[in-house]
Design goal:
homodimer, 138 residues, mainly alpha, Arc Repressor Mutant, subunit A, two-stranded antiparallel ribbon, 6 helices, 2 strands, elongated, DNA-binding
Chain lengths: 138, 138
DNA sequence: TGCAAACTCTACTAATATACTAGGGTAATA
DNA sequence: TATTACCCTAGTATATTAGTAGAGTTTGCA
């Protein structure tokens, strides 16, 4: 299941991508427009900023803005920052690999190879979808 | 992330599918062979039995056995029984649909359509993979 | 026939982690 | 000085992953 965090994060990013120019947009504005708890959104946007996806400006006229063009922001990147691994098990994760403690041999694990397939098909979608793609599909 | 419950469940099913004939296999046998906590496995197999995937026999010589041929057991079914929805959000789930409380219009939701794509590609794999497929891939 | 062993089945309990909410105060900027 | 992002803390709820204890059922043997 996708956490609200990731869902809200993607929604906020598409909202920012649809703003005219690159003027900073206030958290409160995004929160009310997208029906998101403002405090929660605050921490999400902060995470996205630390990941280099968003920039911010304090004080009057401040807010958040995209650091890159919308068609250069891959959903796979956003997903990994907010949700974590795209793979369904650590032992099939490319970026967050961990060995299973119950599996002596990964190649002999019936679930392992299946989850590699699932990972690849999901990855194929998320790596090839940008913010721009998402907006145009609405 | 896939829960251990589902992972163990699939492992147990492949173990049963690899047994000769259809003699009942004891929980303890599966648990030690697959490095699974026996008590945990107990509740998992019970769930699979109630879902009509496994049969059981009590008393001496008892245990669990497959109710159908291995090539008639789809992973998608097992997944839904143990893990729940295959979709990453309730609003794109076929079998567990629920409306999002924050979305006034699903078609206008940037995440919605993306997650339909992810669901379909995952579903395509899980619906077309049976226990037999999993075993042959080891 | 009756007892004991070998099983599954059920119900509690609990530790741990994670998701989400809510509040306060601080720092930077116009 | 007002406005806004930033940061810290703590609480609540829920799911996961077990562990414990015992009840119920079947088989085989004396």
């Amino acid at each position: 299941m996708l956490s609200r965090k990731t869902k809200y994060g993607i929604k906020a990013l598409t909202f920012l991508a649809q703003q005219d120019g690159n003027e900073p947009t206030q958290i409160s504005h995004i929160a009310t427009s997208e029906n998101i708890s403002q405090k929660f959104l605050e921490s999400i946007l902060l995470t996205l900023r630390k990941a280099g996806i968003l920039g911010s400006k304090k004080g009057k006229g401040g807010g958040y803005y995209l650091l890159k063009e919308a068609d250069n922001i891959k959903i796979a990147h956003v997903y990994r920052v907010l949700e974590g691994p795209i793979a369904m098990m650590p032992c099939v994760s490319l970026n967050f690999y961990e060995k299973c403690d119950d599996c002596p041999d990964e190649d002999a694990c019936s679930v392992h190879n299946l989850m590699i397939q699932v990972r690849d098909s999901t990855l194929n979608i998320l790596e090839n979808t940008t913010l721009t793609d998402i907006i145009s599909e609405q």
